[in-house]
Design goal:
Length: 154
C-alpha cells in the first residue's frame, strides 16, 4: 500500500513539476516575442517618412531619454533627436528600406542585424545594433556598427 501511495505521489509531483515547466515556457516565449516586436517597431520607425507616425512608433519602443550612437558619427539622446536623425537619413536615401533580423537577447541586452536596401534592391549598408533595455522594456540605448567586424590581423 505504501508503495502505491509513493508511486501516486511521485506521479502527481511529476505532473505538477511538468505543469510548472510548461507554465514557464510561454512566459519566456512571450518575452522573446515582445523583444522582437520592439525591434520590428524600431525598424519600422527607420522606414517611416511622416514625422508624426515615426514619433508614434518611437514612443512605443524608445525610452524618453534613450541614447543612440553610430559611426557616422552620431551620438544623440531622446526620442525627438532620434526622430530628427531618422528623418534626415530618409531624406538623403529616398526609397530605401530598413530590414532587421530577429533579436537575440539576454538579461536586459539585445542585438540584431540590419540592412539598408536601396529602392532598386541593392544593399547600401548593413550592420549590427547592440541595445540596452530600460526596465519597462523600451530601448534605452542603441550602439550601432556598420559592416562586418574587421578580421583579426594574426
Amino acid at each position: 500500500m505504501h508503495m502505491i501511495v509513493r508511486t501516486c505521489l511521485s506521479l502527481v509531483g511529476g505532473v505538477l513539476l511538468a505543469s510548472r515547466v510548461e507554465a514557464q515556457v510561454p512566459d519566456e516565449l512571450g518575452e522573446s516575442a515582445r523583444r522582437n516586436v520592439t525591434v520590428s517597431t524600431y525598424c519600422s520607425a527607420w522606414a517611416e517618412p511622416e514625422r508624426a507616425k515615426r514619433d508614434s512608433l518611437l514612443r512605443e519602443v524608445w525610452a524618453r531619454d534613450g541614447r543612440y550612437s553610430d559611426p557616422t558619427p552620431v551620438s544623440l539622446r531622446g526620442r525627438a533627436a532620434l526622430s530628427t536623425h531618422i528623418g534626415s537619413f530618409l531624406a538623403q536615401n529616398a526609397g530605401a528600406r530598413f530590414r532587421c533580423s530577429a533579436a537575440q537577447s539576454h538579461h536586459h541586452f539585445m542585438r540584431f542585424a540590419w540592412a539598408i536596401v536601396a529602392a532598386g534592391g541593392t544593399a547600401i549598408v548593413s550592420g549590427t545594433d547592440f541595445a540596452e533595455l530600460a526596465s519597462d522594456g523600451r530601448l534605452q540605448r542603441i550602439v550601432g556598427f556598420f559592416g562586418d567586424p574587421p578580421k583579426n590581423p594574426e
